[in-house]
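Dock 2BA; give full complex structure.
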Amino acid sequence: MKLTLTIVRDDDANKVVDALTQHGFYVTRLASTGGFLRTGNTVLLSGVEDDQVDQMLQIIQAHTQIHVHPPSSHLPREVQVSRAVAFVLGLERLAKL
Ligand code: 2BA
């Protein structure tokens, strides 16, 4: 099994979670903040079978947008934010008690 931690923009989070749950994935949402832009994002935590990871990433890609953060007084250049940033980790065991 794998543990996936996927960071998406808050604006995309509802669409992504809806699509994942409709496809049978279990998802836990964690409110978070990007360290660089200091804007809200959401971490999606899921325990999945190894052969489900690619399908999950495809669903996330299909329901997110690349975002261009405009320049501001704090940041003199625009910044491109990915659709999502996903970490896929080995998971020894998932127990429901
Ligand atoms: P933020 O930290 O707010 O970063 C937003 C965007 O700013 C990044 O988009 C990247 O384009 C730029 N950026 C971030 N750190 C930078 C730096 N030190 N120097 C120059 N530009 C920088 P993404 O790379 O798509 O990241 C989106 C969000 O995903 C990030 O929000 C952060 O919350 C998370 N993230 C990305 N890479 C990560 C990593 N290696 N470890 C942990 N979290 C990560």
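Observed: The chain has two helices and six strands.
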